[in-house]
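Two quick folds needed for the group meeting slides. Do the first one here.
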Amino acid sequence: MRQKHQSRDSLSKEHNGHQHHQHHQHGGHGKHAGHDPEIFKRRFFICLILTLPILYFSPQLQTWLNYEAIAFPGFNWITPVLAIAIYFYGGWVFLKGAWHELRGKIGMMTLIALAITVAFVYSLAVSFGLPGMPFYWELATLIDIMLLGHWIEMASVQGASKALEELTELVPTEAHRMRNGKVEDVPVDEIGADDIVLIRPGEQIPNDGEVIEGKTEVDESFLTGESRPIPKREGDEVVAGSVNKEGSIQVRVTRTGDETTINQMKRLVEEAQSSRSGYQVLADKAAYWLTLIAIAAGTLTFIVWLSLQDLLFAINRSVTVLVITCPHALGLAIPLVIVSATALAAKNGILVRNREALERAKDIKTVAFDKTGTLTEGKFGVQNIYTEDLEEMEALAIAAALETPSEHSLANAIAREAENRELDLPPMSDFNTVTGRGVEGKVNGKLYRIGRPEWVQEQNVQLPASLQRGLDKADERGESAVVLMDEEKAIAVISMADRVRERARQAIEQLQQKNIQTVMVTGDAEAVAKTVARELGIDRYYARVLPEDKVKIVQQLKQEGAAAFVGDGINDAAALLEANIGIAIGAGTNVAIESADLVLIEDDPLDAVKALNLAQKTYSKMIQNLFWATGYNVIAIPLAAGVAYAWGILLSPAVGALLMSLSTVIVAINAVLLRRTKLAEKSS
């Protein structure tokens, strides 16, 4: 499994590298290798300032807004001179991009370059005496909006990187290492695994590790988004970058350097940035076809009108077609949605490792969940208490008094239940562990034993029928039971099971409302699987599944339609890779999840539903935006080409440009609305 995992990973790295290289070659939209958002920002603002006089002197705007621009000798040349500056300074990026694209596959850059060049050359010709209407203000605003789109897109990618740099700054440079009872301050790089470090109140934790002495509360908001401090005591894990709030603690270091959670998070986000969005590919495809349509429509328009009218009318129409087709909105459609989606994901504790996963999520028909630690808490909880001649709470108090010194997971469950119910435990003495059986001790001077049901027969004590029924019921449900007895008879049966997470119930409910089939996959026994599935209302389950067989089950599910797999990522790596979408859950303190597409920071199954909702909403926004960005062309191109000329309808370049600007505004507002989306329905 590890091998398979490795090879896929190295493949994806190679693929990413190849992709990156390719984009660099073709100057693809969205991968301006070596470009810095600052370049686009600077060019955008300078061009915007140069555009203002062009707008002011534009005859169309003067007509629309009903004002008259000031006139002075030579004022007619202000607009052409500024347009030359904007074309070469602002448009250079696109011209260069188009040059690269022409050697590969034409797309967005070619279309932008074509439209600005045609508008520029034609407008200059008009300024030098060719009869017609120049396109100066359309040219200037087109370049402005394209620069804005690229700046937004790159700033979003860089914004995530900035957040990463801030993450790195969370880690202190020095640590207090403890050696032979002495504390010495050393650089964090010198700390090795198994070193003991002292962390005082108010200090940041330098490395991931385990608390071995002291108790405190720690702020882990950078990781989980959870603002409440989290209590930590001996045996709990703490992560580098979190802040120690209250007491002094000693921590044994478990991970250093690149292995720490914070560095793994950085790597995940970097990978997500380098993964190219499938939607962007979609936008490029749209641009490719739009370019072909624009060139074809423009050429056809020119030929037709040349045979019907004069040269000037033919040029004017074909230039109008090219200018109108140009994708102001298409340049912004995808970047704006990606920015909003990434922000929304982060706010909901979802790390998107692979942007394409967001696209695949719309087709998911089945979600398979690993049971232990995903649908259940991964620790035992008391399910039922059956008693004979004794109050339930009294039996629990005696059992907890006996079990408190024990290390066993079932013993811990009983002690925890008594603590949750705030019971006062009676004093216990003469404690003794009977290997393989249970424990015994005196409570209030009377001898009690608690342990495996088999111990009852060995002790020859009586087992009342009501307790036998309790044992049978526990057996049926796949629960683990212990029996509490005194010297004459058994007095209580306590059954325990891995607790189902409350949020798992809501998650399953919401998936079923979306008509998505839910499946549970577990290595546990049939009885346990059946009980949990029934409790959660899950349609299908697979029990006694070995980790390597999880892959086969995912393959089987994929034949019925796209399948997602939700697991904790430790023994689920192969299944996460095999699924159409791998969702790793509860990766809070160990983000080393190479195999997942989406990583959920919290241990919350409901976040898996949120992730699918996010993906579906992102997808529909993308499609809406692509529709708005290209749809108006269906009407605008024929009108610009003069199809309705016979009826006296002719779309002027200015009105075309207005239509174009309107579609841009719609696209921008639509993308920003994504941020206001609620990802989880309130559960009943």
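Then this one, please, same format:
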Amino acid sequence: MIKKTNDFLSGWIMTLIGSIFLIISFILPRLGYAKGIYFALVTLFICGLPLIYLSIHRLIYNKGINKISSALLISMAMIAAILIGDLFAAGEVAFIMEFGALLEDMTTRKARKGLNNLISLLPKMGRVIRNNQVIEIPYEEIITSDIVRVLPGERIPIDGVIIKGETSVDQSVITGESLPIDKETGDFVFSGTINQFGAIDLRATNVGNDSSIKKLILLVENAEKNQAPTQRIADKWASYLVPIALLIALLTYLFTMNITRAVTILVVFCPCALVLATPTAIMAAIGQATKQGVLIKSGAALETMSKVTTIAFDKTGTLTFGNLEVSHIIPLDKLYDKNKLLSLTASIEAFSTHPIAKAILNYAKSTSAKLMEIDSFNMISGKGVSANLGGVKYLVGNEQFLKEQGIFIEDEHIIDMLNKLKSQGNAIVLIADFEKILGIIALSDTIRPDSKSTISKLHKLGTKTILLTGDNQMTAEHISKNISISSVFSDLLPEEKVNEIEKIKTHSVVCMVGDGVNDAPALKTAHVGISMGAMGSDIAIEASDIALMNEDISKIAYLKWLSVATVKTIKSAITLSMVINFLAILLSVMGILNPTTGALVHNGGSCLVVLLAALLYDKKYVE
């Protein structure tokens, strides 16, 4: 009952009513009606009671020094103003404090807009096929392996794999892709996305809190619960300032014997602006980041990101797409042109499960290359394959495999060609019959278009960049040369990546960016870990401090800019609040400010700090 009354009184409507009575109490005495000052009692009831309730609640439930809060100091100042007969000052203190709290709440709600948008994407119901009947149940009751039917225009309630039907899905909320993505049987779909055209049946894979959209919501909610170090310091300062304020007020009274000056010091000394500076800025920054598809798990991560001097990148899936694509087809026999060489190789590789084989086969299908029937197939793990086709035995694999089968490459021109392709980061597939080499197919991992510009922006921000990869040295150096990365460490196992991060930590604040399970230890070891693609490896996401909803590498430079802008905003707000407080205390001791004007100055500073944070939410990224 008490809490409900308190919440009602501290709302916008009652606070505005309180402001009307406060204005009346100011005007009427100046028009000759002295008893008009008593209208301020209504303001004290509306705005003062929630303040006293908050003070008492914190005294009872907070631990240690945290029992002493800014609300307690303001309550003391309000009561002191009442005792000296300055009802208007008491009402003004209560009103402006309540008004400032409402402004802070408004900024926080604005910052939570991105989270609220995510929550609104959670469908309330799902259509499940059980016992050959289609039933609608709350989405929370859908279990793994359920068959879920989604009609055109409906939001997909769970993560799942299409087992029947074809459609296009608007998955912009998850991946940021502006155009709908075509989906067919066997394709994966995310919860929270929209089925645009055909009806589809899905087999549920991730449900409830494990679904994509729910994980994003939980990440943002957890971010709001975790305070930044600066915020904890500010809270501690606020607690220590209360007894200091009492001491200065007491000394002022003893030296001047002026109770009004002592009360004014209590009014202006409250560290409201100091306490508000960090949480409002952090909330605004997290809100802006959410709009950009960046999930920051804690204020501490954001603050640490501003201090990062070195950013280490994994290669595959981070700076590159992580998908091998055919880059060169080079016939070396006059009987074979590019199309015939591709057709032959794809026909043989169609029976292999190796990623390189799949890449060649996919490329052949995309070019409508004709596949031929082969007579026999044999795979030698890690080396290559052999096959009979039209009475001829063919070999497809690496140089070592061909050597073991008696095929040696002695032509200097071919050797130079192979060395050049390797230096460019290509994986090499050689095709031969049992007499000679017929051709070369080279495959490469495509560099993301924004990788080079992102590295350049980070360098301009004074950040060193490092490549940590398990790939060979030639591939790593090719990537680093193309995107101008600062340093390269290649042929690294997961534990070796951790060792490199540990070495960097001895002289730099380091951030690690990765996307896979093998990156998780390095992500956890770094001062800040960023996982690429929030829908990627669950282990990588859990290990990271910041997750990107899509695979936009350019967001790394944005994150660095946002973290620096946030810390600058916090420092500016704290400096401003301390300057205002210092000047207000000085003017109070001198008797220039009274409780009324002191309340205006003090709470004006608090509102200014909240305004600075609100501006951060809409601050534009300057590249």
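Slide caption for protein two: DSSP finds 24 helices and 22 strands in the chain.
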